User: Fold this.
Amino acid sequence: MSNLLLSVLTCVAYGVLAAYFWRAHARGEGDLLSRGAAGHLVLIPLAMHGYLLVQDIFSGGGFDLGVLHALSLIIWLTLLVYWVARFFYPIGGLQTLVLPLAAVVVVLPELFPSDHLLAHTGLFAFKAHITAAMLAYSLFTIAMLHAVLIFQVEKRLHQATLPRVLRGLPPLMTMETLLFRMIGIGFVLLTLTLISGIVFSEEIFGKAWQFNHKVLFGFVSWGVFAVLLWGHYLYGWRGRVAVRWTVSGFVFLLLAYLGSKFVIEMLLHR
Assistant:
């Protein structure tokens, strides 16, 4: 079976699950998706998606992490984290929101193939750097989704128009606790990513460390999340203040990596 056909089948599987989950929430059965057997259904497209990622990223014995592969990997990791978290929190509604996005990104690398093989991929420093970076991006992606949902729930808390998918979410205090736990772990991983990129630059990238726009946005994002965690710890920042800082930090993080790769690969074709 070709990778393109498998990606289409995976896209359909994600789409069918998204429709099924949305209908379940419309019937008020969101909790069943969080803790019931139906929540395991996502493992089927996740496994297919994971196979495609391995085939694409490690194609030809190299390591290709172009912008579309990176985006696909981040969404895959996001769904995987949600699947694990569902054993501890009723977050089926959050998984439902990501499934349509996963259906789109899984086919993009096959429709628009790239060839951006990286060197020095066998080194431990490279593997540690990439692992920390991808996990950090995934956790901050989830944190950003949490922040947007917290804002929407707070905005409509006293209205009768709250969508069912939002009614099935955990209480706001639980959502905010989850938000800061993910930001805290993501901050540690982002710190490791920046440090490893500086200390092992020659081993990872084959050249001395340089201060460029990618590094600048990465440190700005790190600073935003550092201030947010500091404000939450000392002054109890939460609610809309936390939402604004989370979204701002995530935007800078996107500019640092995906934004840079998009310009280089898609616009400059390098």
User: Anything to note?
Assistant: Residues 1-117 form one domain.
